[in-house]
Write a structure and sequence with these properties.
single chain; four-stranded antiparallel β-sheet; globular; binds pyridoxal-5'-phosphate
């Protein structure tokens, strides 16, 4: 790749020094051989080790059969949850694994009565659609929704009628980091609970749920954790958990599931938030990505990410494009968003050139580099974006709908 970041920024080499070099990890991700992979905010690159884990799952199923449940499969939603706990600053035994964020969020919602004085759900209008839909679908059951428009204060919209504040740590559309501390403070002042969707942060932006006193947190593995689909997580503040009785519940949540008792008795701790048979193959696959995040360390990943997102921002602005993600790297997660002419078409043309990213209708192209990307790849991608716009090569793809 011919790109030189220092030359492109107009800086001498001495002014250009990446803070940390994590490129040795590139060899762990086979897809990097053939693509410039800048879509880790959507589907993080697959670690080679994930393939071994899936084969291990098949081997255990083949050779251990039914015995596998007692040898680890049954408790995987808790043991894998403990690994997530380490990544989000939670105590062991406070995280359970589920199929997706939608289910995790539905379990939280099922813990509350929706017909009293306190039945307001307050969130930012640009909350991720699945989260919005699940609360909107409860309106006939009593939920009152307050969707706060962009630019207005979520904190100010939280009042004594608020039950839940389902909000994002990093906004999926623009990559902006929210002030979770202020949201939690206000929610607790008035007796409301915060449900933090950390899908767009965990794995690239540090999160400390215990320190932040977040009540509930949810996320998945598809993106920055590089864990693939089917392995989402739910954190519940331990002192809150014992008092909650989720109505979306299953036999894994019973105190004695193998007694097959006719009446429900909730398990202690986080296990009460479980449902039915766990998604075992997805949990095998996911841990390969988590292991790497633990090995590299989120602090180093964040340092590299702040550097790379700044590099992308500077290069895109030098080309005259409108960067819609925050310009201050402290307020920016792992994704840079940028509006270019015909960005839907630019995205398609980039894909044909082996540069993978995506776009969202309101915010433009989304570029999400991770710890294994090189600065040279970023320069190359920006050069290609510039060339595609200048030559009009995007025009033949115009009208493309947003997709993955
Ligand atoms: C912030 C956020 N929340 C939730 C989701 C997805 O939710 P689910 O796991 O239910 O598909 C995404 C993206 O897919 C997201 O970016």
């Amino acid at each position: 790749m011919r790109a030189d970041p220092a030359a492109c920024l107009g800086a001498g080499p001495s002014l250009y020094s990446p803070p940390v070099d994590l490129t040795a990890y590139r060899e762990r991700f086979p897809i990097l051989d053939g693509t410039v992979y800048l879509i880790n905010h959507s589907l993080g690159a697959m670690p080679a080790a994930a393939e071994d884990r899936v084969l291990e799952y098949a081997r255990v199923w083949k050779t251990r059969g039914i015995r596998a449940w007692a040898e680890g499969w049954w408790t995987m939603p808790l043991t894998v949850g403990d690994q997530i706990a380490r990544l989000i600053g939670a105590r062991p035994g406070s995280v359970t694994m589920h199929q997706n964020v939608t289910i995790a969020e539905a379990i939280v919602l099922s813990c509350f009565q929706l017909d009293g004085d306190r039945r307001r759900v307050v969130y930012e209008q640009d909350n991720f659609p699945t989260v919005r839909y699940i609360y909107q679908a409860q309106v006939d059951r009593g939920v009152e929704i307050v969707a706060v428009p962009e630019g207005e204060s979520l904190v100010e919209a939280i009042d004594e009628r608020t039950l839940l504040v389902p909000t994002q740590h990093v906004l999926y559309k623009t990559g902006e980091i929210q002030d979770v501390e202020a949201i939690v403070r206000r929610a607790h002042q008035v007796g409301a609970y915060v449900v933090l969707d950390a899908y767009q942060s965990v794995g690239t932006v540090p999160l400390e749920v215990t320190e932040l006193e977040v009540d509930f947190a949810v996320g998945g593995s598809v993106k920055w954790l590089c864990g693939g689909p089917g392995a989402a997580w739910l954190y519940v503040r331990p002192d809150l958990a014992e008092g909650l009785r989720p109505s979306l519940v299953g036999w894994q949540a019973h105190a004695r599931p193998f007694a097959f008792e006719p009446e429900l008795e909730y398990a202690e701790g986080a296990a009460r938030f479980l449902t039915g048979t766990p998604n075992v193959p997805a949990l095998y696959a996911a841990t390969a990505g988590y292991d790497l995040i633990e090995e590299v360390g989120v602090a180093r990943i964040r340092e590299n990410s702040m550097h790379q997102t700044q590099l992308l921002t500077d290069l895109l602005r030098l080309k005259g494009f409108d960067v819609t993600s925050p310009l201050d790297s402290k307020r920016r997660g792992g994704t840079v968003t940028v509006r270019t002419p015909g960005f839907e078409g630019v995205h398609r043309e980039l894909a044909e050139r082996g540069i993978l990213c995506d776009f969202r209708p309101d915010s433009g192209l989304r570029l999400g580099s991770h710890y294994f990307n090189t600065d040279e790849e970023l320069v190359y991608a920006v050069e290609e974006i510039g060339a595609i716009v200048e030559s009009g090569a995007y025009e033949r793809h115009l009208g493309a709908a947003a997709s993955f």
